[in-house]
Automatic annotation (TrEMBL):
One of its GO terms (molecular function) is metal ion binding. It catalyses: a myo-inositol phosphate + H2O = myo-inositol + phosphate. It comes from Kangiella profundi. It comes from the Bacteria. This is Inositol-1-monophosphatase.
């Protein structure tokens, strides 16, 4: 196994166990607001530190870019960490959240894990070696059209986001597909596209740490990723589309005039 992926899996397991215990013992969770509709808890912060400690034990010189503590160190290798993706679910007692960790070498993602500790599902990928769920190889769904597709999405809950624009896309897409799901964890949405549970995923306004791991897992499972107009996706893009190749093509055709 890719050495970085081994450490990412170890860090995600450690943090995931800690988060799952806290989820079961709800009384030790202290939530704080970071801004409008944006929450963090002591568990996010402690899980992030566990992940960073685990990485630094094997790679003391590697750089870190983590949601709650920001940038740390300078190196060709950078670990992009979202300790709990789906904090709103976590705080509400909704059992749908994950740990997301990506490893970048000179700016290219080479290893990734998305771990759902309650389902004990470890989605992972190493560049050029495919994607797995636990020990099983992953493949995106085979559906060729939007007709028959289920798409995951996220609503524009962030301050300053354009709800009308989002609804224009929704109006164009919704009648074409079976249904949409809004589950509240972008990293798991991407992992589910990789696993063929969803045929595609689209959202506006995500951050690098939300998508860094999931994007590699989708690509290594045979999926395609771009921004919502079909331009190359980077961690700074203001929108994301990830889907199997057939749905990807039809999605872009459907929204091209918006
Ligand atoms: P987070 O839990 O790490 O903050 C989905 O829309 C994404 O947005 C999630 O991956 C989640 O990441 C983030 N998010 C932040 N606040 C949210 C909210 N109020 N509702 C839904 N998602 C939220
Ligand atoms: Ca957050
Ligand atoms: Ca997140
Ligand atoms: Ca988070």
């Amino acid at each position: 196994m890719n050495a970085y992926k081994t450490i990412a899996v170890r860090a995600a397991n450690r943090a995931g166990d800690f988060i799952a215990k806290a989820f079961a013992n709800r009384d030790r969770i202290i939530a704080q607001s970071k801004g409008t509709n944006d929450f963090v808890s002591n568990i996010d912060e402690q899980a992030e530190q566990l992940i960073i400690d685990t990485i630094h034990k094997s790679y003391p010189d590697h750089a870190i870019f983590a949601e709650e503590s920001g940038h740390q160190g300078k190196s060709d290798v950078e670990w992009v960490i979202d300790p709990i993706d789906g904090t709103t679910n976590f705080l509400r007692g909704i059992p749908h959240f994950c740990v997301s960790i990506a490893v970048r070498q000179k700016g290219k993602t080479v290893a990734a894990v998305v771990f759902d500790p309650l389902q004990d599902e470890m989605f992972s990928a190493a560049k050029g070696s495919g994607a797995q769920l636990n020990n099983t190889r992953l493949r995106v769904s085979a559906s060729k059209k939007l007709d028959g597709a289920i798409l995951a999405t996220g609503f524009p809950f962030r301050e300053g986001q354009d709800l009308e624009k989002y609804l224009e896309y929704f109006h164009a897409l919704y009648p074409q597909c079976i249904d949409m799901r809004r589950a509240g964890s972008a990293a798991l949405d991407l992992a589910y596209v990789a696993a063929g549970r969803m045929d595609g995923f689209w959202e506006f306004g995500l951050s690098d740490w939300d998508t860094a791991a999931g994007v590699l897992i989708v690509k290594e499972a045979g999926g395609m990723v771009s921004d919502i107009k079909g331009n190359q996706y980077t961690g700074d893009s203001s929108s994301i589309l990830a889907a199997n190749p057939g749905v990807f093509k039809h999605f872009l055709q459907t929204v091209k005039n918006i």
